[in-house]
């Protein structure tokens, strides 16, 4: 096949990818999703469409000075999206936006310096390439770190495919930067593989969006990887999974382990160990906790019981002098940091503040006192 034919395939793949990305953006805007996952999902899809268009063959190279800085910040956007999609506890901060703006500003400095100080601009381009690699690695680590505790089957199936393709794409851009090629320069080598990867990413995103009923989804990120942290989004996961009925006997056995045997107190308890205790396959237990109880993360499921246990201990007058760390360890937490974060997310107060307020209430003090037998 000649060069013109390859260019036509390249442009066709990019056009299809851009169309799907923009359609996802329009659907998300129509649903008026306002959470951070939807915002990052929209930004990711818009960035994907922008990348597909400005790096296409025959795109005017004269526009490189303003398109390259925006393209150089796409790895930061992908990293933020991966954090939000694969970490249910992630919260978007102001410094995340500052990081994105700093990369864009650096990209403009590189592109504007290229005509007059090419050697200096090449050094700046290598810095951008290094940042892209670091962010791609951080996104990969995030995916692997939360893989075991993820209970959403659709998200578990999609995350690795999405991540691999995106990391490869970012890696190609980074390698181009280290090879003294302008970062994401229009018309750079490897255009057809890049177009194919963009098309696959857009296809996966579109399948995630349109394979479930519209009312079940809550934002563009839910369409891409079911990343919304709200339990209302469990309906989307059930719709995508075909809504398999969960065994009520398994749920009762699980409840007995948690409420009677207090298995959640076991240090480092993993879902595989809990499945072994119940003598069921791990995937069935994941489905039971997600589909039957509405939890999307195994740690969130355990923390429900652990935080409840800790609240009782902190409200007990007889344990007034027991250190908070001891209470956290007894409840099943391995360190004070995760305990403090989980406790504040659940109650809106630190453990110390909760204890002070609970013990200052006369009714709580009376309840906490052990009952004496009469006679």
Strands, helices and their partners?
Elements: H1 3-30, H2 36-54, H3 64-72, H4 74-86, H5 94-113, H6 118-145, H7 153-178, H8 191-210, H9 220-225, H10 234-241, H11 248-259, H12 271-278, H13 282-293, H14 298-314, H15 324-331, H16 336-347, H17 351-360, H18 362-368
Let me know the number of strands. Answer: 0
The separation of the N and C termini measures 98 Å
The level of helicity is: over 70%
The helix/strand class is: mainly alpha
| Gross CATH architecture of the largest domain | Up-down Bundle
Q: Estimate the strand proportion.
A: under 5%
Count of spatially separate domains: 2
| Largest beta-sheet characterization | none
User: Could you give the order of the helices and strands?
Assistant: HHHHHHHHHHHHHHHHHH
Mean pLDDT: 78
* CA radius of gyration: 25 Å
Catalogue the unreliable spans.
181-189, 212-243, 365-375
Shape: elongated
Number of helices: 18
The CATH topology of the largest domain: Rhopdopsin 7-helix transmembrane proteins
Q: Report the top-level CATH class of the largest domain.
A: Mainly Alpha
